[in-house]
Amino acid sequence: MIINHPLLGPRDAQEFTYLGDAGLMNRPYWLSETALQQFHDYLYLRKNPAGEHRELWFHEQGDRSWLVVTRNTTTHEILRVELARDVALANKAANTSQEPQQ
C-alpha cells in the first residue's frame, strides 16, 4: 500500500505505524459535567466501520509526522491524506467558533 505523504510524496506503508481511529484526536473536555462518561466512551468504545474511515498514521521511519489517512477499509483505497496538525487546527478553529462569546 502506498501513502501519498503531503510533504514527502508517495511512501510505502511499511514506513508508517497505524495508530487507530482519527477520532482520538478529539479528546473530551476534562472539566465538563459529563467528563467521566465522555472519557469512558473515548477510551473504550470504538467503531469498526466497513467503508470510509479516518485513521491516524505515524511516519515512524521517515519525518516522524502524524497523518490522518482517509481509507476505505473494504478496498484499502486511500482517499485522502492530511497532516494531523492541520486537521487538529481546523477542528480547534471550528470548535472555538461554536463556543458562546463572553
UniProtKB/TrEMBL annotation:
One of its GO terms (molecular function) is sarcosine oxidase activity. Its EC number is 1.5.3.1. InterPro entries: SoxD (IPR006279), SoxD_sf (IPR038561). GO terms for biological process: tetrahydrofolate metabolic process. It holds the Pfam family SoxD. It comes from the Bacteria. Keywords: Oxidoreductase, Plasmid. Coiled coil: none annotated. It is an enzyme of class 1 (oxidoreductase). This is Sarcosine oxidase, delta subunit. The gene is soxD.
